[in-house]
Amino acid sequence: MSAAERPQAAAGDKRPGFPVRLSPNAGVPSATKRIVGSNASNASDAFKPMRPKHAVVGLQKPVPAGVGLDSQTVRSRMVEKLAKQGLQDAAVLAAMGQVERHRFVDTALANQAYEDTSLPIGLGQTISKPNVVARMLELLREGKGKDERLGRVLEIGTGCGYQAAVLSHVASEVYSIERLRGLHDKARDNLRHFRLANVHLLFGDGMEGFAKGAPYAAIIAAAGGEAIPPAWIDQLAVGGRLVAPMQTASGQQALVVIDKMAHGIRQAVLEVVHFVPLKSGTN
Ligand code: SAH
Q: How far is the CA of 180 from the centre of ligand 1 (A)?
């Protein structure tokens, strides 16, 4: 069992056993069914599990000596660019500077890993742009001090595991759910190298959330539907924040921030984004 799967025993804390398999159909509230786009499988898309090891250097653009992908310099440059784009949360920038993004993408794409671009990760899915990852984490952490960590965080859409790795540096525990078995396995392989004991990978339909880990201080989704599934709001702690892409009235997708308060929720719709669709069930 890898560090990423290992259950963390903590006194008085109800933790699930790992790996956890969530029932694909159990208890999906009808309101969450409404937001289902298509349940079509992407299984025909080319997908080859890969296990990047050490210096994975891109094939097309040779990287100058001293700034190989294993070098801190390439990540520092990416962080400088993020700061220039207006991202300012020191804890988020430090986390982005620490996680080796090239280890999460296919070898042929590794030379683009530190550019501000989304990249394919197999099964028709993509790893988000660094700018968008940083922006969403900044929103989740709003109001927190530099050395203050978020508590338990639920991530819907593990994908290749990159964002879960970044989250592990700013949160006490990360529960990350993926509905595609191929990507769940890939993320586990990718994360093994990092030995992040506070990241828990789950296979299941994230539209149901993950009740066993609730309440969450923060919930973040990397896939967007037509509405926010009620389970996410239920599983958010009072005082907690949810950041997710969602389709708006104009038909575009935008980032939505929901704060849960003792007597209701407050919702803000922010900038337009382009995330893969949130789908129900597992494949
Ligand atoms: N955070 C990821 C981004 C992955 S893309 C990363 O860093 O790589 C979004 C992911 O959401 C896809 O892998 C997709 O399969 C997944 N997804 C879509 N609907 C889902 C659902 N209902 N439950 C869990 N994962 C879902």
A: 8
